[in-house]
């Protein structure tokens, strides 16, 4: 009898009944919130139907547009915010109400990201932001981005008229610029498109293994001596060795330089903080967090910009005319003044981030104290809560569905536009990312005609992988054709 109860099919059946009962019985407080149908949602994820479909299932679940939906996930009942009014309540709360990223110390996510800003909370996070933000402001330099863009242009001239995977290309340039910004280090990401530099390869493999679905379903499995776990530990060790080597080299270079020299890299600015309780390990964690938060997001955003330019030749033409008017020469690197003048290109970037917000959904927060949204709805302690930026950006009461950069020309500060989030946990790389996108887009427009291959299946919408938080284009090819003559003014 006892052995029958512990046989595998019975355990699976009992677990199934337990999950289904929980799935259909939310806590009483969550009852007024519409539910995302679990099977429909699971199908879109399991069959890899893409982000457009995931988001359609979410938006169809809330026909009355309450602005909140609930969904049952492995971690339990989760509430997603989908309108700006509720988002403002979310932004107003601090880490003592909404706690982010609680992972055990021995978990691979913690081993890799350590205690860098993205995973820190409370005093620790505030201290890190205070240190990183001034270092960031001192490091903003369009010249550095322009030099890397010239390397990209030289590389793409070798691939004239050939359809290229846009995300792969854009990752190259964002890794290169971030290497310079963060470490004053040449990542060699733009030497060729065929070979992937060690740093990028290692980072990609680590992040792929860290997102092992097994860790989500059976969270204890990261502790087992599995092949994938051992490989992950070795890769993190290799990554750490490299990052510490880069830090040591930079320290040596700085020691040999004249005191008066101005430094634009984050590492030089942050090394000044070593001591006073700030250690080399803290520095390593910070640089890893910044590198991680900064390159795929902007690479995706740029992929969306070039996709939209390829799809709308008339907008591309207008943007190129602006670049010619402000910069003239096809090899000119924009100055900070030029960046301010490239207003139409900035509007394209903002509209592109609206339609395709790189972070579609914020990582979940644990609600630590009951959180009131309106008279009827109070989210109870212990619920997971996230903000779905994609849904806020697609609200048909506020935005039309088309790509219209003009809407951002005279309205720079639209409160419904939140690709970088808002409040105390907003993105510290926002200004850098926007500047980077302006410089790269303007310089590329002066050198290339941008198009989709004629046989492309993607003229209708950008194909997106169904990652939960961050968006990735799925096998999206773009053609860069060398412009023979740029009219100089
Ligand atoms: C288009 C590009 C980018 C987008 C759409 C974006 C978006 C975001 C969003 C939505 C958050 C909030 C995450 C949360 O609340 O959990 C965030 C945080 C953050 N971002 Fe970005 N980001 C971009 C580029 C960058 C860049 C270039 C850097 C650095 C070089 C960066 C560094 C960070 C960091 C360190 C945080 C954590 C801040 C904190 O938790 O206090 N981001 N970003």
Automatic annotation (TrEMBL):
One family name in Pfam for this protein: p450
Cofactors named for this entry: heme
Signal sequence region: none
InterPro entries: Cyt_P450 (IPR001128), Cyt_P450_CS (IPR017972), Cyt_P450_E_grp-I (IPR002401), Cyt_P450_sf (IPR036396), Cytochrome_P450_Monoox (IPR050196)
Coiled coil segments of this chain: none
Keyword Iron attached: yes
Record's keyword terms, sorted: Heme, Iron, Metal-binding, Monooxygenase, Oxidoreductase
Alphabetized GO MF terms: heme binding; iron ion binding; monooxygenase activity; oxidoreductase activity, acting on paired donors, with incorporation or reduction of molecular oxygen
Residues annotated to bind heme: 427
Protein family (similarity comment): Belongs to the cytochrome P450 family.
Protein name listed in UniProt: Cytochrome P450
Organism in which the protein naturally occurs: Gigaspora rosea
Phylogenetic placement of the source organism: Eukaryota, Fungi, Fungi incertae sedis, Mucoromycota, Glomeromycotina
């Amino acid at each position: 009898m006892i052995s029958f109860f512990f046989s595998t099919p019975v355990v699976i059946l009992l677990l199934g009944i337990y999950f289904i009962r929980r799935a259909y019985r939310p806590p009483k407080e969550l009852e007024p919130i519409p539910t995302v149908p679990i099977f429909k949602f699971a199908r879109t994820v399991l069959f890899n139907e893409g982000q457009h479909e995931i988001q359609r299932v979410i938006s169809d679940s809330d026909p009355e547009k309450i602005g909140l939906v609930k969904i049952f996930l492995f971690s339990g009942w989760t509430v997603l915010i989908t309108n700006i009014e509720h988002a403002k309540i979310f932004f107003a709360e601090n880490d003592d109400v909404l706690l982010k990223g609680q992972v055990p110390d021995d978990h691979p996510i913690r081993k890799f990201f350590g205690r860098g800003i993205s995973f820190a909370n409370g005093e620790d996070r505030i201290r890190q932001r205070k240190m990183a933000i001034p270092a960031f402001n001192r490091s903003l330099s369009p010249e550095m981005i322009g030099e890397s863009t010239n390397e990209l242009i030289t590389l793409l001239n070798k691939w004239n008229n050939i359809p290229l995977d846009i995300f792969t290309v854009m990752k190259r340039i964002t890794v290169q610029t971030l290497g310079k910004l963060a470490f004053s280090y040449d990542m060699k990401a733009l030497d060729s498109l065929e070979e992937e530099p060690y740093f990028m390869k290692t980072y990609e493999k680590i992040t792929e293994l860290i997102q092992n679905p097994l860790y989500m379903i059976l969270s204890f499995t990261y502790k087992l001596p599995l092949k994938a776990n051992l490989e992950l530990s070795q890769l993190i060790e290799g990554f750490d060795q490299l990052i510490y080597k880069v830090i040591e080299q930079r320290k040596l270079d700085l020691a040999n330089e004249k005191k008066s020299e101005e430094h634009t890299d984050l590492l030089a600015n942050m090394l000044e903080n070593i001591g006073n309780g700030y250690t080399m390990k803290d520095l390593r964690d910070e640089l890893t967090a910044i590198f991680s938060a900064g390159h795929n997001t902007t690479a995706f955003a740029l992929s969306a910009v070039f996709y939209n330019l390829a799809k709308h030749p008339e907008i591309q033409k207008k943007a190129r005319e602006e670049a010619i008017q402000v910069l003239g020469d096809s090899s000119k690197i924009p100055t900070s003044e030029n960046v301010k003048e490239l207003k139409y290109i900035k509007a394209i970037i903002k509209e592109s981030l609206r339609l395709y917000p790189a972070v579609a959904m914020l990582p979940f927060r644990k609600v630590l104290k009951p959180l009131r949204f309106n008279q009827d709805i109070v989210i109870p302690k212990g619920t997971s809560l996230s903000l779905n930026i994609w849904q806020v950006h697609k609200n048909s009461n506020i935005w039309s569905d088309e790509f219209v950069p003009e809407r951002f020309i005279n309205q720079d500060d639209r409160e419904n536009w939140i690709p970088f989030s808002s409040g105390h946990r907003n993105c510290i790389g926002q200004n850098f990312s926007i500047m980077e996108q302006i410089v790269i887009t303007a310089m590329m427009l002066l050198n290339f005609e941008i198009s989709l291959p004629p046989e492309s299946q993607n003229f209708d919408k950008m194909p997106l992988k169904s990652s939960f938080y961050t968006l990735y284009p799925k096998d999206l090819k773009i053609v860069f054709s060398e412009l023979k003559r740029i009219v100089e003014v």
